[in-house]
Every structure is written in structure tokens, then in C-alpha cells.
Inverse folding.
């Protein structure tokens, strides 16, 4: 009996201890902090260590060489091109994603017959494995058996027997990479904006319609200000995903032709893993960090100002 009473008292003290805000909040944060430390913090610190050494896959610890890897990367024309491509790729893709997702969100805002089927087809690029869906695009853009070229020939836009060689020409290859990435990211941004549309009070739109506002005026003066915080979140995540993505480039072009579609993430992989030069690969990957940090801070501040204004 005494033992049972002691266990009950201990459990009661435990509940009282956990009910304190100063204890409960940090306790609930422990799993998230552990996840960040183990899966984000440790790889980042290890990459920082590798960038100061001459580590390779045969010798993953290497010897200390200071800033030699950074000097090598900054003098490499391929790395400079990859950095420029990364910015152009991210900016172009995100502009197209935000514009097209706004159009789709407006079109899908009101229920209509077949809306569920349209939503299902819209979500397929996002839920399908990215490597599998990109391999499908690899066939669509094939140099000899491109179904897109076949369609263009059928429409009379290409001479018989002609091919565009989408992935063999630098200008077309980069455009193809951007188009496939936009196709992949568009469902995510559309769903986020649709969630924002569902939170807009219908009374605001009805009042604007009574005042004589057309669709563009309602969108510009009513919907857009209320959608700003949600749109900023979609833009933030889309920017991070795009800036760090290498799957589309790896499957479609492997950075070619002549490294014209190389981005920082793919170049770090080819240098560090395929080429076996871990230190240079880690150095290139670290170039992503300051840009993403600045972008995250800027976008989050913009979101906070939008929320305050709303």
C-alpha cells in the first residue's frame, strides 16, 4: 500500500513539473531541436570542416589547407557559371511559379463540375517521385524520339524529319530545366494559395462587387493584400527548394551541354561525390548557405510586415 502511494505521489509530482510553462515548452521542443542538430547541424559543421582540408573519398579527413579551396572555387569559371545559373534558375522559376499558381488558384477557387479531377491531375507532379517524373520528361525531350518534336511536326511547326535537340543546345537545355522545375513546383504553390483564398471572408468580395469592382480590381485591392502572407510563405519554400535542387539538372542534362546548365547543388555533387574531391564539393555547397540565410530573413520580415498591415 505504501509503495502504491509512493508511486502515485511521484506521478503527481511529475505531472505538476510538466505543467509548468518553463519546463513543458522546452521539453516539447527537444525532438525538433534534436532533428535539426542531427540532420542539419552536424552535416553543416562537417561540410565546414571539409572545406578547410584537402579531404577526398579515399581520405575523408585530410589535412588542413586553410582557404585554398575557396580560392580554387572562386577562380573556377565553371563554378562562377554555376553560381550565375543558380540565381537565374531560381528567379525565373519562382516568377513563373507565382504567376501561374495565382492564375490556377483563381480558376479553382470556386467549385465546378470536375474540380476534383482537375485537382488530382494538378497534384500529380508534386506527389510523384521527382526522379520518375523527370525521366518521363527525358523521354519527351529526347533528341531523336521526342514526342514534343513529333507533335510540332504534326502541327507543321517543324519540317519533316527535323528535331529541336532540346537537351543538346545550351539555350534550349536551360529553358527545358526551368520548365520542368516549374511544372514540378507549381502544384505546391497553387495549393498554398488556394488555402489562402479559403481564408478570405466572402463579405469582403461581395462588398467590392457591390461597389462595382471587376475581377482584376477585386484581386488587386482585396485578394492580393490578404494573400500576401501566404504567398510569401510559398515563395520562401519555393526559393529554398529551387536554390538547392539538383535532381532535374542531374536527370535531364547532368549539367551539360558544356556545363551550361550546371547549378551549385549539381556541381557540388559532381565535384565531391562523382569526382571524389570532398573538400571542393563541400566548399561549393557552402556557397548556398549565405544566400539562403539572407533570402529567408528578407522573406520572413516581409511576411511579418504583411501580417501587421493586415
Amino acid at each position: 500500500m505504501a509503495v502504491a502511494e509512493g508511486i502515485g505521489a511521484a506521478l503527481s509530482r511529475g505531472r505538476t513539473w510538466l505543467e509548468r510553462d518553463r519546463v513543458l515548452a522546452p521539453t516539447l521542443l527537444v525532438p525538433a531541436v534534436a532533428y535539426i542538430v542531427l540532420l542539419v547541424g552536424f552535416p553543416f559543421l562537417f561540410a565546414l570542416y571539409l572545406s578547410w582540408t584537402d579531404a577526398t573519398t579515399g581520405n575523408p579527413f585530410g589535412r588542413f589547407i586553410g582557404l585554398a579551396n575557396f580560392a580554387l572555387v572562386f577562380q573556377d569559371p565553371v563554378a562562377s557559371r554555376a553560381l550565375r545559373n543558380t540565381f537565374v534558375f531560381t528567379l525565373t522559376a519562382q516568377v513563373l511559379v507565382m504567376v501561374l499558381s495565382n492564375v490556377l488558384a483563381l480558376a479553382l477557387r470556386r467549385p465546378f463540375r470536375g474540380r476534383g479531377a482537375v485537382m488530382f491531375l494538378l497534384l500529380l507532379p508534386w506527389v510523384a517521385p521527382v526522379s520518375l517524373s523527370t525521366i518521363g520528361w527525358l523521354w519527351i525531350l529526347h533528341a531523336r524520339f521526342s514526342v514534343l518534336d513529333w507533335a510540332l511536326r504534326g502541327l507543321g511547326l517543324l519540317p519533316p524529319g527535323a528535331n529541336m535537340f532540346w537537351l543538346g543546345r545550351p539555350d534550349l537545355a536551360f529553358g527545358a530545366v526551368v520548365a520542368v522545375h516549374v511544372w514540378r513546383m507549381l502544384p505546391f504553390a497553387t495549393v498554398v494559395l488556394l488555402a489562402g483564398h479559403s481564408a478570405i471572408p466572402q463579405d469582403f468580395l461581395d462588398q467590392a462587387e457591390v461597389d462595382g469592382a471587376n475581377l482584376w480590381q477585386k484581386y488587386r485591392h482585396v485578394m492580393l493584400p490578404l494573400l500576401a502572407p501566404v504567398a510569401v510563405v510559398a515563395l520562401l519554400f519555393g526559393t529554398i527548394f529551387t536554390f538547392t535542387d539538383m535532381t532535374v539538372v542531374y536527370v535531364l542534362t547532368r549539367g551539360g551541354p558544356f556545363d551550361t546548365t550546371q547549378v551549385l547543388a549539381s556541381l557540388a555533387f559532381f565535384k565531391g561525390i562523382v569526382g571524389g574531391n570532398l573538400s571542393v564539393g563541400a566548399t561549393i555547397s557552402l556557397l548556398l548557405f549565405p544566400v539562403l540565410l539572407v533570402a529567408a530573413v528578407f522573406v520572413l520580415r516581409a511576411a511579418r510586415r504583411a501580417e501587421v498591415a493586415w
Observations:
- The chain has one domain: 77-309.
- The longest helix spans residues 77-107.
